[in-house]
Amino acid sequence: MCTNFTPTQNRAWARQTLGVDLPSDYPPEAYPGYVAPIVVQGQHSGRVACGLARFGLVPPWAKDEKISRHTYNARTETAAQKPSYRHAWSARQYALVLVDDFFEPHYGSGKPVRWRIAQANREPFALAALWERWTDPRTQHTSVSFSLLTVNADVHPVMRQFHPADDEKRTPVVVAPGHFNAWLGAQPHEAAAWLQQHAMPALEASPAPRP
Fold first, then answer.
1. 73, 147 in Cβ contact below 8 A?
2. How far apart are CA 198 and CA 18, in angstroms?
3. What does the pLDDT look like over 15-56, one tens digit per residue?
4. Which residues are within 8 A (CB) of 139 and not within 5 positions of it... i.e. 6 or more apart?
5. What is the CB neighbour count within 10 angstroms for residue 159?
6. Which pLDDT does position 91 carry in this prediction?
7. Average pLDDT of the chain, as a whole number
8. Residues 6+ away with beta carbon under 8 Å from 28
């Protein structure tokens, strides 16, 4: 489960890697309810664009935004069937969330200590996500939100060390640069094939306790 990450501010990387310009203003760290830059692809035009979306997916049928407190992570294994995510999955609303790192709790001392997980090469990277539009039935205002997709990490050399000992180990999916276009343009029946932890770039982790 990932509840906290650092959206990248590296404009040169975003432009060179994905051909997009980052939005101008967003928080230096993201938590559920915060906005962060995501990249999506037009289904008809194929055009790739970057904009801000809120962390915590709100499905089209929701009466209000409270559900987003529970939908910031989606299990890849069940996202196509779960009511909160199945529309986004079947509608091919796949996204990349652009980050410098993300954080997970390490229980090596018996108490949770925040650790930072980043690419071993220290470059920014992209996390797989689903995005959705929601229209407030009271105001008719439309907003965009997203959920990070996760996979089992019981055997991942880095991610298996986080969370309590009895919990299943999970990791957000880091999409390798060579798979960006394939993930954004995937068909629903093939999307899960791009979300395997063995295809993720090398990661490293280090303690990053809160001040």
1. yes
2. 23
3. 999 999 999 999 999 999 999 999 999 877 889 999 999 999
4. none
5. 24
6. 96
7. 94
8. 6, 7, 9
Q: What is the dihedral of CA 102, 105, 108, 111, to 10 degrees?
A: 150
The pLDDT of residue 164: 85
Whether residue 19 contacts residue 48, with contact meaning beta carbons closer than 8 Å, is answered with: yes
Q: Residue 23: is it exposed, middle or buried by C-beta count within 10 angstroms (0-12/13-18/19+)? A: middle
At a CB cut-off of 8 Å and minimum separation 6, what does 186 contact? Answer: 92, 94, 193, 194
Q: Nearest Cα to 192, choosing from 207, 206, 175?
A: 175
* Per-residue tokens: 210: 């809160």
Task: Answer whether 0.90 is exceeded by the pTM.
Answer: yes
Positive or negative, the CA dihedral 78, 84, 90, 94 is: negative
User: pLDDT-derived band of residue 67, with 50, 70 and 90 as boundaries?
Assistant: very high
Each residue's pLDDT tens digit, 72-117: 999 999 999 999 999 999 999 999 999 999 999 999 888 999 999 9
CA distances from 204 to 42, 67, 103, 150, 189 (A): 33, 32, 11, 18, 32
Q: Which residues pair with 103 in a beta bridge?
A: 116
Distances (CA, A) of 114 to 43, 98, 176, 193, 202: 38, 20, 25, 30, 20
Tokens 């404009």 found at: 11
The pair of three-digit structure tokens given for residue 140, joined into one six-digit string: 């008719």
